[in-house]
Design brief:
With 220 residues, this protein is α+β, with helices and mostly antiparallel strands. The chain has two domains: 102 residues, Alpha-Beta Plaits, CATH 3.30.70; 112 residues, Alpha-Beta Plaits (2-Layer Sandwich). It contains four helices and ten strands. Strands 2-3-1-6 form a four-stranded antiparallel sheet. It has a four-stranded antiparallel sheet with strand order 8-9-7-10. A two-stranded antiparallel sheet has the order 4-5. The longest helix is centred in the C-terminal third of the chain and has 21 residues.
Length: 220
């Protein structure tokens, strides 16, 4: 199955990763009337629970917007309209920005592919965090995270209406660390993984991908 992916980057701007959610708030508020995809809320205010088709990231300091399918079309429409970024305590005029538009083929590979997390992977929620901490460090926790990762990949595919009959394999190579999210301490992961699933660069997997978590890049 082919999907369309567009990304807008601002190469002359350097931001701390915590500005990711502020970037989402600014763009979502400024252009939100154009589409609920920009802020993931429906007209009545309810959350749109499907996989986010527009995602906001800070990767290696560079602000980045990533759109998939309808989200990709939306970013192309907005490209010329983004003149500055107002991120609460910071206002930045934009003098340079880049846009890419690509086609990517989803599927299952005959070989394992290695990916890195370019931003922290939020694998755990309140429920599975309790299970995770009760497991023995090492193999038990790794196998637990492998299952979560496979679920994340399947959720990504399902969110794009892509169904597979083949089995997905995945093995994490990650390190846990504590990060602050919505004024709460969370266990997140850095590192990477191998899998037989074909995944496009820069998309997010796991929790809170619209805010920039779980962005991946294939190791080449």
């Amino acid at each position: 199955m082919e999907i369309r992916i567009s990304s807008i980057s601002f190469p002359e701007i350097s931001l701390h990763p915590h500005y990711g959610h502020k970037l989402r708030g600014y763009i979502g508020t400024l252009f939100g009337e154009k589409s609920p995809l920009l802020h993931n809320h429906l007209e009545g205010g309810e959350l749109r629970y499907s996989y986010p088709l527009v995602q906001y990231k800070i990767i290696d300091g560079t602000p980045l917007l990533v759109g998939i399918n309808e989200g990709a079309d939306l970013l192309i429409d907005l490209f010329l309209q983004i003149k500055k970024l107002e991120l609460e305590d910071l206002t930045v005029n934009i003098y340079s920005k880049n846009i890419t538009n690509k086609i990517f083929e989803l599927g299952i590979s005959d070989e394992l592919i290695e990916y890195n997390f370019k931003t922290m992977w939020m694998a755990l929620n309140q429920s599975n965090y309790k299970k995770y901490v009760n497991l023995l460090p090492g193999r038990e926790r790794e196998e637990f995270l492998n299952r979560i990762l496979i679920g994340n990949i399947l959720s990504f595919y399902k969110g794009l209406d892509f169904r597979i009959s083949e089995k997905i394999y995945a093995k994490v190579m990650v390190t846990g660390k504590i990060s602050s999210f919505k004024n709460k301490k969370m266990t997140v992961f850095t590192g990477g993984f191998t899998t037989n699933a074909l995944l496009p660069d820069l998309v997010g997997i796991g929790k809170s991908v619209s805010r920039g978590f779980g962005a991946i890049e294939r190791v080449r």
